């Protein structure tokens, strides 16, 4: 059985999360994750997530406190010597719709009261990726019912594939995103991102530890309003064998 503890500091807010994973029958894996929201006001289901997974085949994710469910099915095949992977994801809520309360008639001249909110509608997405060779891959993501898709090209440079370049184009927003990452032999990774539509520049440094942990520091700059202070996030993750 494996356990993971993660701490996150963002501005003046600190959060924590823990995950326990164990092997079920065959290749199945069962995980239970909880954030500090599950213990903030005494033990509760808030922040609890249960996941049943068979790597490379399917994933079932359940949040008991609001009955949100996410199904994910994955499959891969070799077509014309190219590795093709397809992922189907559907998110929905099993919570029953709340009964509609009687809404009194609005007073003369007053705006009518908004209808009560029900469970969020289901969402379905398809992700397709084609690996032409170890250095070049194209991915396409599309949300059913949406007006476009995201197309990402990944290029890994050099014999060790230590430098990765990822341009992304969102057809719905007609906007580009760019990411560049560089890995180092000591376990460090430096990554930079830029979103053209929002003019958000991100810088991230990650260090992996040989004793089963990692540390990440990330900052985001809003280039559209340089008067805003950069947003700083620090994360620390530790893995344990129980």
UniProtKB/TrEMBL annotation:
> Main localisation, per the record?
plastid
* Function (record text): High-conductance voltage-dependent solute channel with a slight selectivity for cations transporting triosephosphates, dicarboxylic acids, ATP, inorganic phosphate (Pi), sugars, and positively or negatively charged amino acids.
Presence of the UniProt keyword Ion transport in the record: yes
According to its record, how does it sit in the membrane? Answer: Multi-pass membrane protein
Q: Which domain of life is it from?
A: Eukaryota
Q: Where in the cell is it found?
A: Plastid, Chloroplast outer membrane; Plastid, Etioplast membrane
The protein's UniProt keywords, in alphabetical order, are: Chloroplast, Ion transport, Membrane, Plastid, Plastid outer membrane, Porin, Transmembrane, Transmembrane beta strand, Transport
Q: Which InterPro entries match?
A: OEP24
Specify where the region named Disordered lies, as residue ranges: 97-124
Could you tell me what this protein is called?
Outer envelope pore protein 24, chloroplastic
| GO terms under biological process | regulation of monoatomic ion transmembrane transport
Note the subunit structure. Homooligomers form large rather nonselective pores in plastidial outer membranes.
Gene Ontology molecular function terms on file: porin activity; voltage-gated monoatomic cation channel activity
Origin organism of this chain? Triticum aestivum (Wheat)
Compositional bias (Pro residues)? 112-122
């Amino acid at each position: 059985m494996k356990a993971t503890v993660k701490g996150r500091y963002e501005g003046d807010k600190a959060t924590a999360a823990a995950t326990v994973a164990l092997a079920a029958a065959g290749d199945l894996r069962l995980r239970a994750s909880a954030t500090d929201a599950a213990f903030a006001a005494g033990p509760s289901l808030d922040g609890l997530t249960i996941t049943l997974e068979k790597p490379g085949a399917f994933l079932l994710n359940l949040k008991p406190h609001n009955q949100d469910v996410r199904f994910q099915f994955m499959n891969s095949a070799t077509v014309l010597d190219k590795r093709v992977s397809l992922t189907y994801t559907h998110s929905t809520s099993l919570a029953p719709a709340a009964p509609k309360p009687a809404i009194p008639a609005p007073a003369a001249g007053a705006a009518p009261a908004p209808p009560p909110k029900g469970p969020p509608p289901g969402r379905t997405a398809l992700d397709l990726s084609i690996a032409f060779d170890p250095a070049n891959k194209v991915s396409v993501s599309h949300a059913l019912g949406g007006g476009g898709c995201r197309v990402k090209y990944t290029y890994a440079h050099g014999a060790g594939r230590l430098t990765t370049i990822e341009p992304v184009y969102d057809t719905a927003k007609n906007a580009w995103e760019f990411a560049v990452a560089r890995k180092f032999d000591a376990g460090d990774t430096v990554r930079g991102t830029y979103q053209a539509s929002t003019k958000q520049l991100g810088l991230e440094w990650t260090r992996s530890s040989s004793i089963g942990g990692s540390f990440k520091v990330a900052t985001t700059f809003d280039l559209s309003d340089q008067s805003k202070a950069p947003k700083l996030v620090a994360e620390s993750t530790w893995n344990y064998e129980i």
